[in-house]
Amino acid sequence: MARLLQGRDPFSMLRLFVPSIVNYNRLVDGFCKCGRLESTHWMLYHMMVRGHRLNTVSYATLITGYCGIGDVKSAEKLFDEMSEREVRPNAMTYTAFLSGVLKKRTVENGIKLMDKIWEAMEYENDLQVNNSAFCDLMQCLCREGLFHEIFSIAENMPQGKNVDEVFAYGQMIECLCAFGRYNGAARIVYIMKKKGLYSQLGFIQCNCSWFTQRCRSVCRENDLPKAKEVLNTMLCKEGVDRTRIYNIYLRALCEMNNPTEFLNVLVSMLHSHCQPDVITLNTVINGFCKLGRLEEAVKVLHDMTTRKFCAPNETRHLMYFINLSDLEIKLNNVNYNIVLDYYCKLGLKREAYQVVGEMRNNGLKPDAANWRILDWLHGTR
User: From its phi and psi, is residue 272 left (phi > 0), alpha (psi between -120 and 50) or beta?
Assistant: First the structure.
């Protein structure tokens, strides 16, 4: 479904899937993302003919679509329709509408709308809905530059107990870091300290969010020494998951054209007795593939399979083997799919089928995803 929606052909979905309310909502979302609101109305009519009743998710998706094209008035009319059909708006519905209101720079109306968000959270029984709405709200406020509103929420916490406090502060820190407001994120940490929420768990979560955003921003600037400094700062902290920290750093390195550093990080992990996991392997292989270094990606995949690691020929200062017999890394289809997908994109049929053969040699059976990728290789993508 996701592949077809990304292909901007939602109509084809009707021939392939059972028309449940969940599938219809996904199709409506696909039309809205394509900007085809007229087709969305046809889909809604099709839903009602089939006996389906629009729910809160349906309306939230429609509101997001209208706000995306700047038609706030049509989005606002949907609230009247929800009232007529006895569908109660939840926090996600109001948050979707808020994004459109703030894009029109009607900040006063947006502030009033936030009061409705807090009120809707009171009536919501699903905590995940409130958490998702709160995340969207933070991103919306940051996107529109209303950072002072985030600080006001941090001080007063108008959502009350409807959103976990540590989770809420963590989202504030993550969003502020994502928009480069590191001093603002530090201010949130200071507020947590005053409220006695600076526990070890909260400290680690906040620092991981900061570390993720900081690594990405530094790597986008191709500042490798600074990136290493940030990595070492996190590794020196007590209680952190070192493998997770390395995985975050490896993912950030994908922003840089520096394949040698991938191998340096793996060597550093092994020397510090930090065990790589499947995510580490996926990240390294995906990074090589993004850089067009397919030979290195296959080499890493093969060496991990045989419990050893050998640096590629281009990295001459790492021309030695490291024994990984003690590392019980279990490969799965996802590892092979990464390399297989890139071979198919380049039209390398022989190499693609060699990957499938290697999967079988290692006791893995190709699944539907593997065969779908190979199907694309033969021109049906």
Answer: alpha
Q: Name residue 33's amino acid.
A: K
Ranges of beta strands (E only) in the chain are 308-310, 321-323
Block mean pLDDT (10 aa), the chain, length 381:
51 58 77 74 76 83 84 84 85 88 83 89 86 90 90 90 86 83 83 71 54 77 84 78 86 81 80 79 82 78 61 30 38 72 74 78 77 70 46
Report the first-to-last Cα separation within the chain, whole angstroms. 14
CB atoms within 10 A of CB 85: 11
Give the amino acid at 360.
R
Owner of token pair 């706030």: 72
Q: 17: left (phi > 0), else alpha (psi -120 to 50), else beta?
A: beta
| Cα separations in angstroms, 244 against 248, 281, 314 | 6, 12, 28
What does pTM read for this prediction?
0.56
The length of the chain in residues reads 381
Look up residue 198 and give its two tokens.
């600076």
